[in-house]
Design a protein that fits this description.
Oligomer: homodimer
Number of strands of chain A: 12
Number of helices of chain A: 15
Largest sheet of chain A: 6 strands, parallel
Order of helices and strands of chain A: HHHHHEHEHHEHEEHEHEHEHEEHEEH
Largest interface: A-B, 69 and 69 residues
Strand order of the largest sheet of chain A: 2-1-3-4-5-11
Structural class of chain A: alpha/beta
Strand content of chain A: 15-25%
Shape of chain A: elongated
Distance between the termini of chain A: 56 Å
DNA sequence: TTGTATGCGTTATCAG
DNA sequence: CTGATAACGCATACAA
């Protein structure tokens, strides 16, 4: 029996369309009936269970295709202990929209892969869960049937998140945080190596000895790793390195450069935005010093001067993170995944479309 | 009775934490039991039903708070005909990450408001549903329990989407598309007026007569509206206007400017990216012409020359779209919402953080 | 005003 | 290999 919902402006056109397209949403029940099997059998076919004869499998699939049946995700997650949703937890940099590009790549990379793997993902921002206690956060995620969380932009100060990760209630994949456990994987480029590479290239190309290194925030996980890369390079080449914290701020990098840039041979920055700030400062000071950045954002192509930088494929990183999440949800243990990076110079002529 | 899941490395620490925090997720059933009422009563309290005595209401709320109960969204959407999820359908510009900023603002604006309104939203990209027929798309959304769709970046060529909107199967809110119906609302700034305003300001400031107008794509809804603004201005001021389609491409705008810029007094562009392309072309041509853009993206602050542009508050637009969606889901009819815009000049010094 | 019972569309268990 | 049937957590029509 079909139940008709209360329709107000009910006219012939609508009625026709209604009957034509069939208002009834086909469910697993319909498929079962049409194929002459039990609901459970259809479910088994759809979820690739063993112990289903090739014959009925084919018959069911035929009906599924013919009726255009698409299983209801919501019902599945409610019912199943295995399937659940994955949350993308993203720290949005409200200050600088110039790097929204990065988060957007993260999001699209994750969502695309999630669709491929039939994973249900929802996007959440740090601001929505900050100030929550561990309990509150846990309950919040549980109430959303979230089984796994992928975390972008986490810093050492995010204590509750740290607990969440260690707590094993959810499977977690962290980006750029050097932590793994049975339930936590980590995906990242080799930060130290990348920083080492880009700095070395810049320094070699310009025969530098005195280096100004503008680091990120003190509580950033990547900051340490990148500093380590610089330390190695310093020892290897016997450099003289002045280190200052720019906190990933373009403005602070600018000011640091205005203050120390003159007596240095080059400026190595832990982010593109800071590199841009440094470069603009040097232009204002009317002196030239090679500058290099980190990330490979498009903005680098718009500032006039070319700079070396590290290009990270954020979409690929995020895509991989989703794959790792799938593995964790399947019961595998957490691993550390190192993604490749490349050195580039972004030129306006090559960026423009 | 509590069921213990199979735990492998079971040790004392974990056990302690386990018992302490309570592995059992509190459900509406627990609340009901604890408060000494029926499940339905709890549900009624939570959903603000009338006909619940103030007394039991208080008692239930107390328990809810004490147990830290958070209703399960998934179960709710599965159960109720009213509550459902909302999809953000976004056209990602894969070519130019420079404007990811806009989509990011859309996403964060929507998600924040959705959380406020307790709406479950999921993000979807055009690429994931393109090539689908209306039926396929419908089934896809239905299978996700999606009741409403907010569409960003739709063009006239998206025929299936057009059908989807007219089809009334889902509630829809379109951004920048002049279409409303009982089930469709539209949110947008006044495109014509905004284009008129920014062009007029630029033209007046520089006493221009011969204008090069670089429009967007032929199949873009905003393109027509913005052209209309230019036409009005042309008549009002008796301008001589050459119109060319730049298709929102920085490169095309550059080439158009290289070709026609010299004989014009100024270049009015239908987007910031095109304005930047035009400006860079003029610099290469070593001539000065005032240029104005549209959108107010951060990149405008990085190109050296200041330009007038229209700032749209994308987050606010998106936030409003979610509000309108809520109304549609509540049974209200679609309306047209016009959001405010402002004229700005983006200066590097003011953008930098 | 409150409680009972049924359904939402799946998955999972277990008997056949 | 297949089929009943009980969950999953909540909403809601209807009975009390």
């Amino acid at each position: 029996m079909i139940t008709y919902r209360c329709v107000v402006n009910y006219n012939e056109t609508k009625r026709k369309r209604f009957l034509q397209e069939g208002a009834k949403v086909v469910s697993i029940k319909d498929v079962a009936k049409e194929a002459g099997v039990a609901i459970s059998t259809v479910s088994k076919v759809l979820n690739n269970y063993p112990n289903v004869s090739e014959d009925t499998k084919l018959r069911v699939m035929e009906v599924v295709k013919r009726l255009g049946f698409v299983p209801n995700t919501v019902a599945a997650t409610l019912s199943s202990k295995n399937s659940g949703r994955v949350a993308l937890l993203i720290k949005l940099n409200v200050e600088t929209q110039a790097i929204d590009e990065i988060d957007m790549q993260y999001i699209s990379g994750a969502i695309s892969k999630a669709r491929e793997l039939q994973l249900d993902v929802i996007t959440i921002f740090f601001s929505m869960v900050e100030n929550m206690t561990l309990d509150e956060m846990t309950r919040y995620f549980v109430s959303q049937s979230i089984k796994g969380i992928i975390i972008y932009g986490m810093s050492k100060e995010d204590k509750v998140l740290r607990q969440l990760i260690e707590n094993d209630t959810f499977k977690t994949v962290v980006i750029d945080v050097p932590y793994i456990s049975t339930t936590t994987s980590c995906v990242s480029v080799n930060q130290a190596k990348a920083q080492y590479d880009v700095a070395k290239k810049t320094i070699k190309e310009n025969n530098c000895r005195k280096v100004l290194y503008i680091a990120g925030t003190r509580d950033g996980y990547v900051t340490d790793a990148r500093l380590e890369g610089i330390r190695q390079l310093k020892e290897e080449l016997g450099l003289q390195v002045l280190i200052r914290n720019g906190n990933f701020s373009e403005l602070q990098a600018r000011n640091i450069t205005l203050k120390y840039g003159k007596n240095k041979d080059c400026v190595v920055c832990a982010s593109d935005l800071m590199a841009i700030g440094a470069m603009k400062a040097l232009i204002d000071m009317d002196i030239f010093r090679p500058v290099c950045g980190f990330d490979g954002i498009v903005l680098m192509g718009y500032v006039g001067k070319q700079m070396n930088t590290v290009r990270q494929n954020f979409a690929a990183i995020s895509s991989r993170a989703v794959e790792e999440m799938q593995k964790l949800l399947d019961g595998e243990e957490g691993i550390r995944v190192t993604m490749p990076h490349e050195l580039v110079r972004l030129k306006y002529e090559e960026i423009i479309r």
